[in-house]
Design a protein that fits this description.
Length: 305
């Protein structure tokens, strides 16, 4: 089979001055994609100026014969998102791909978590994905084509000690992923999410024995495939890192169903094992699939995207 190219396609990669975003940008550019390398050059907690620069990544891409422009707008405001998309339109005349990757950390255990540690994290991860994708969506809808990749995290999908703000933001992104998959379907727009594991400044000293294998470059090919015209799915989530790529999904178990629609507290207690049983499950494709499982005449609905 032939190699996957992006000739003439235009991608925005947010938070791409270092770490994963840099790897995504470099790979896309090496495949002929024109890339807007966005980054504010922030520190890891988003509070000050750090070492990551969009310009340096653009230089690297250009030195390898690729095409890219730098953009320094923050993803945290609607205006910033609009301006990032405008950079793509002004520089390259179109936008086909958005990779929402910008991120910060402000970890604390929940007892010490304060509102001032919630808002900045929600603003970058969830707000940022919303702010950048929305103006790009308008363009994609008009052109009946688009690819969006969100960056979620195992911290939200599975839980991680001390990351309630971050985990909530990363699960918010999953909600956006599922809803936009529905809304994009009739416009040729596909959206998917990754939960990466990679050795970056964010994970320094945390990855143990997989540290060496878990390079940002081992994540980027999955992002590139999801950003490609050939991407076969929408609304899916993939765990990616150190050479393993796996689908992650929200499933619904067969559970227990009362005969008459009535449920007592004791019913819940008495059937709790059945309710908890994960041996038989479906992967709902949309919200209404839950309703279908409640119909008596059909039995539990079966659906898979
Ligand atoms: P990183 O800190 O190297 O990259 C994040 C980038 O986002 C930085 O360059 C930063 O300047 C930029 N950024 C922060 N606020 C911004 C804003 N308001 N506007 C534009 N850019 C902004 O860290 P890494 O690891 O490369 O993270 C990339 C993404 O992957 C993040 O969303 C992170 O939460 C996610 N992630 C990373 C994991 C890992 O194992 N490294 C695990 C799970 C998720």
């Amino acid at each position: 089979m032939s190699d996957l190219g992006f000739d003439g396609r235009v991608a925005i990669v947010t938070g791409a001055g270092g770490g994963l975003g840099r790897a995504h940008s470099m790979l896309l550019a090496s495949r002929g994609c024109l890339v807007v390398v966005n980054d504010i050059g922030g520190s890891m907690d988003g509070s000050s100026s750090g070492a990551t620069t969009a310009e340096a990544v653009v230089e690297e891409i250009r030195s390898l014969g690729g095409e890219a422009v730098a953009d320094q707008h923050s993803v945290t405001t609607a205006e910033g998102g609009q301006q990032i998309v405008q950079t793509a339109l002004d520089s390259f005349g179109r936008v086909d791909v958005v990779v929402n990757n910008a991120g910060i950390l402000q970890d604390k255990t929940f007892g010490s978590m304060t509102p001032d540690l919630l808002d900045p994290v929600l603003d970058v991860h969830l707000g940022g994905a919303f702010n950048v994708t929305r103006p790009a969506w308008a363009y994609m809808k008009d052109h009946q084509y688009g690819r969006v990749v969100f960056t979620s995290s195992s911290a939200g999908l599975f839980g991680n000690f001390g990351q309630s703000n971050y985990g909530a933001a990363k699960m918010g992104v999953v909600g956006l992923n599922h809803v936009l998959a529905q809304e994009g379907r009739k416009h040729g727009i596909k959206v998917n999410a990754i939960a990466p594991v990679a050795q970056t400044r964010m994970t320094k000293g945390l990855l143990g024995e997989v540290e060496e294998l878990a390079t940002p470059e081992s994540v980027a090919p999955v992002v590139a495939y999801l950003a490609h015209e050939e991407c076969p799915v929408s609304g899916h989530i993939f765990g990616v890192g150190a050479g393993r790529v796996s689908r992650v999904f929200v499933g619904m178990c067969a559970g227990w169903m009362s005969d008459d629609g009535q449920v007592t507290v004791e019913d819940v207690r008495d059937h709790f094992d059945e309710i908890e049983d994960t041996s038989d499950f479906t992967i709902p494709r949309r919200s209404s699939d839950q309703l279908k499982t409640m119909r008596r005449e059909d039995g539990p609905a079966r659906s898979e995207s």
